[in-house]
Amino acid sequence: MALNSFLAALTVVALAQGASLGQDERLRYDNYSVYKVQFETQEQRSLLGKFVEDRDNFRIWHEANDELHLMISPGALSEFNSEIQMTNVSAKLFISNVQELIDSEEDANLRASRDGSFGWKKYNMLAEIYAWLDEILANYPAVTESFVLGQSYEGRTIRGIKISYKSNNPGVFIESNIHAREWITSATATWLINEFLTSTDELVRNLAESHDWYIVPVLNVDGFVYTHEKDRMWRKTRQPSNISSCIGVDPNRNYDSHWMENDGASSDPCAEDYGGPKPFSEPEIQAMADFVSSNRDKINVLLAFHSYSQLLLSPYGHTNEEFPPNYDDLMAVAKAYSAAVESLPYGTVYRYGTSADILYPASGATIEWAYNEQEVEITYTIEFRDTGRYGFILPPVHIIPNAEEALIGIVALLDKCKELGYLKLKSAQ
Asked: What fold, for 105-419?
């Protein structure tokens, strides 16, 4: 790309984000704040909706059926406060300066990087994750196998690792970092890989050796790199639009399963939840779908790692007017995960339910497609820590505690799946 074109594109992104460019050409969020806004009526929610239309100044971080978490530019605070009073809803300040959290996170990453080793006291970049995967594959050749989903829009390889200790195991697929800014997901996925291969704990050994694991640490590779190099708050893919200057698609709204139904995604290319011009428009999602569909007879459970909110979400996402046939089982499995996590000394509480029921309609998502189109009967979106104190910018000190919670939760989840008969082999492995 020519220099002038590059600078023009970067300017468009900066305007779309409503943030400023610093000397290092990274978008900055100085004095951007995040509020939790609670509402009681649909009329109040509709009035709040006009904030979201002003994407230069307002961004949704989290949405549920009774609250929004909104990131607000410093220039829009007075408008926000006035509207809150008129709408008669409550607003609580969560984060006073988003950039301070980003700076603290970066400082922690730099301190942990001084010895040059890979670890979980920092958030690792894509190149570091891939180099570490190569080491893992070299050190454990008997039980690990590399696989490639495909190539991203910008030409990056989307990699995964299979861990299998013996034949005739049920399969568990873990998708991570489909949303670029959710760094805790790939950190947790890599920590789990390491535990499955190195832990001497009997519980972990049984978990690791009794299942075949298919783990993709970073699915949205282009967006993930962009969050490290340009904009920490980027969510979508990086493919340009043919009808807008806005870039990217929400990859978790791009699957061909009830795509764009019931307001489950936006048709606006500038929206954070833009479903794309058509299903599977994003090469990353087409690659993921091709791999899962070609291995569907080996996959009993699919888990999609996300952040934040501490939720376990099952199908359906496209409607809250009906529930999946095995709804009771899905809730029993989710309850097992939640109870196991809460039993740890951290006392972290996870709520659970269908995506549409406890959050909002979300069509074209990974778990919807796997459940509806690929007959994977146990699928969940797991929204990791926290509930808003740090949001997407969860400090690195939370990585290992969050990963420990995921581990014990998955143990309980799979135990309940086995009890309910969901881990029977679907075909010869």
From this structure: Aminopeptidase (3.40.630)
